[in-house]
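Example (one chain per record):
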Amino acid sequence: MTTPRRRSRPVRLGPRSLAALALVGAVGVIAFGWPFLAPPSSALNAHAQDAPWLFAGLLVLLVAVVTATISESGLGAKAVAMLGVLAATGAALRPIGAGTAGIEPMFFLMVLSGRVLGPGFGFVLGSVTMFASALLTGGVGPWMPFQMLAMGWFTMGAGLLPGPERLRGRAELALLAGYGFLAAFAYGTAMNMAGWPFMGALASGVAFDPGGTVPANLARFVSYCVATSLGWDLGRALVTMSLTLTLGPAVLRALRRATRRAAFETAVTFESPGEPPRAAREAVDR
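Predicted structure:
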C-alpha cells in the first residue's frame, strides 16, 4: 500500500514563518497606505516627505527578517540553488523592455514560479529577484524596498491560488493569466502609492495633500494613476497575460519536472512484500 504523494515544496511555512509574513504584511499595508490611514491632524502627515524614507528603512529590515525566518524553516541547498537560478533569470529578464510601455517579462516568470513552488518560496523569490534586478539595472533607491515587498506579495499570491494539486491544462493557464493581469495592475497601483507622497507641490492637482480628507486624497491618487501610469500598468498586465498563455505550458512543465527531480521532500511510502521496489517503478515510469 502506498500513501498518496503530496506535491513537493521547497519551503513549508511553519508557525514562525507565518507570523513573520503576517508582521511584514501588516507593516507593509501601513507603509503603502499610510496617506489614507493617518488622520489629517496626525504627526505622520506633518512629516509627509520623510515618511517614505522611514518606511523604506523599516521594510528592508522586515523583508530581511522574513527571508531569514523562511530560510531557517527549511530552505535547503537544493532550494537555494533553484532560488538562485530563478532569481538570476528574473533579474536578467527585467531589463529587456526596460519598463518601456510596461514590457516587463519577469512578471510572468514570477507567476509561474509562485504557482509551482508555493507561497513561501514565492515570497522569497519575488523579493530576491527584485533586489537583484535593482542592482543589475542601477535602480537602487528608497523605492527598492517597496518594490521588493510588492513583488514578494505578487509571487506569493500565485502560490496561494486554488487547485494546485488538481487544476491543469487550459483551466490552470486561464487562472494564472487572469491572476497575472490583475496582479500586474495591483503591483503598479501599490508602487504608485509608495511614490505618490514624494511629489509634494510638483503637481498640485494630483499630489498628496497632508491636510486633505481621505475622499479628496483618494480622488487625487486616482487622477495621479490615470495620468502617470495607466498605460504602463496596462502594458505590463497584457504582456504578463500573453506570455503566461503562450509560454506557460512549457515553463510549468519545466518547473514541475525540476521540482520532482530535486525531491525537496521525500514522501513516506509503504510497499507490500510482492510489490517491485520504488526505484524500479520510477525507472519504468520514466
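Caption: The chain has a mean pLDDT of 78.
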